[in-house]
Design a protein that fits this description.
Layout (H helix, E strand, L loop, with lengths): L24 H12 L3 E2 H4 L5 H6 L4 E4 L3 E2 L9 E2 L9 H12 L3 E6 L10 H14 L4 E5 L7 H9 L4 E3 L9 H4 L5 H12 L6 E8 L5 H12 L5 E6 L16 H14 L3 E4 L9 H14 L1
Parallel strand pairs: 2-5, 3-4, 5-6, 6-7, 7-8, 8-9, 9-10
Antiparallel strand pairs: 1-2
Length: 299
């Protein structure tokens, strides 16, 4: 661990975390599509650092089931509280919004809806179904919550046929109670395992953050637990503190350290590891699927 990457109070972010503000025509096109169809994007709600790049490339991670989360994760900038009843017309608006953007791949995620008996699984499934009606070629990735361990809800989503099933493990076991209260690593690992070990499985994917005080051996250990589920894609990115009310950054990892984590992950058996300071769950999602499909085609 390089002392230079330890976070000092008031210190500026490292240069590799700085991005240029770009506002290409597609950026405004995506913003307009979200507004006109009354849709939410996690890119905006969670203050993602890649929003300008992704919107400018005509991609976005859409957020269904409203924008108020029932969990209290201390790393996330999404609004916490008691949600209102979900909008049953949202899947239709989502399909129309995606069609308007003519996307190659769409990523759909949601807040946690622990207030609903199925955790919102029906809305995921209906959104997938309507997207398929609109465009049979579009690749669909869903980034799902843990549904409080309701595996019938997981099956509802899987039966709808997403191309990619993504569920994030987020951090190492020791930090779960601090970072992700209300969640359990074992539950998340079971979601990945069940998604992979079923007839005609989707591509299975997960992600973790670094910089919250974990050690390299702990990262390697959770990576091993994840790959043992059959999970194929792993994303690793730097945790960034959204506000003073959230968990502080303990250290910044240097770019070379992400390269090493990617190397270790692929040696463990992941088919693809996307690792870097600004990597997030849906960052370069289409490229990841293309790489996966190319590998299987060549084999």
């Amino acid at each position: 661990m390089a002392d230079s990457t330890l976070v000092q109070i008031g210190a500026p972010k490292p240069k590799w975390l700085k991005t240029k503000a770009t506002f290409a025509p597609n950026y405004l096109k995506v913003k307009d599509a979200l507004r006109s169809n009354r849709l939410h994007s996690v890119c905006e709600e969670a203050n993602c650092p890649n929003i300008r790049e992704c919107f400018s490339h005509g991609t976005a991670t859409f957020m269904i089931l409203g924008n108020v989360c029932t969990r209290g994760c201390r790393f996330c900038d999404v609004i916490k509280g008691k949600p209102i009843n979900y909008d049953t017309d949202e899947p239709r608006r989502m399909a129309e919004g995606v069609a308007a953007l003519n996307l190659n791949q769409v990523v759909i995620t949601s807040v946690n809806r622990d207030d609903l008996p199925d955790g919102g699984a029906w809305v995921y499934a209906e959104t997938i179904r309507l997207l398929r009606e609109r465009d049979q070629k579009v690749k669909i990735e869903v980034l799902i919550p843990d549904f409080l361990g309701n595996f019938e809800s997981l099956e509802t989503v899987l039966e709808a046929g997403p191309d990619v099933l993504n569920h994030n493990c987020e951090t190492v076991p020791r930090l779960y109670k601090t970072v992700r209260p209300g969640a359990k690593l074992e539950r998340s690992l079971e979601i990945l395992h069940r998604s992979k070990h079923r007839p005609d499985p989707p591509i299975v994917k997960t992600g973790i953050m670094v910089g919250l005080g974990e050690t390299i051996p702990e990262i390697h250990d959770v990576m091993k637990q994840i790959v043992d589920t059959g999970c194929q894609i792993l994303t690793i990115g730097q945790y960034l503190q959204p506000s003073g009310e959230h968990l502080p950054v303990i250290r910044y990892y240097e770019p070379e350290e992400y390269d090493e984590l990617a190397r270790v992950g692929e040696e463990m058996g992941f088919e693809h590891v996307e690792a870097g300071p600004l990597v997030r769950s849906s960052y370069h999602a289409f490229d990841q699927v293309e790489k996966m499909e190319a590998k299987h085609f060549d084999a």
